[in-house]
Amino acid sequence: MIKTKRLVIKSLTADNDGQVAKLVSDSQLLAAAHLTFSTYPVTSFELNLFLQSVHVYGIYQQQLIGLLLLDWVADADPPALELGYLLCRQMWGKGIMTEAVAGLLQTVHAPIIATTDDNNYRSQHVLQKNGFTIASHATGQIVWHKSACTVC
User: Fold this and answer.
1) What domains can be seen in the chain, in order of their start residue?
2) pLDDT exceeds cutoff 60 at 151
3) CA 74, CA 150: separation in Å to the nearest integer?
């Protein structure tokens, strides 16, 4: 478990209380995060399979308000993790995701990449505030990189 000034971040492997299902019921949020499921609304089977296939961390302020995702990049040399995240839209613009990513980064000791859409300035700001730099720029997307923390 990770605690920050305003948040509790903890690993999720199942959606026992339905909070993840409620969070991912926002189709606009899923589209913005480029997170897709084969069914909508998401079945509990598919949701629990997802929660067990990548490292998923819940962001809490009394209740679940967002997710942080980490997964190993198969072809990265040296090995790296890919970071993804989503936050319920009511919490946007409050610095919560910047704080959550900073908290998670204190526990990660590998290079990390993240991808944002060209026009997703909020997400780009989160990464910039957490020390990510632009690694490449392709049509419509920016790939960001952060070196492994050596003093964490």
Assistant:
1) 2-146 (3.40.630.30)
2) no
3) 22
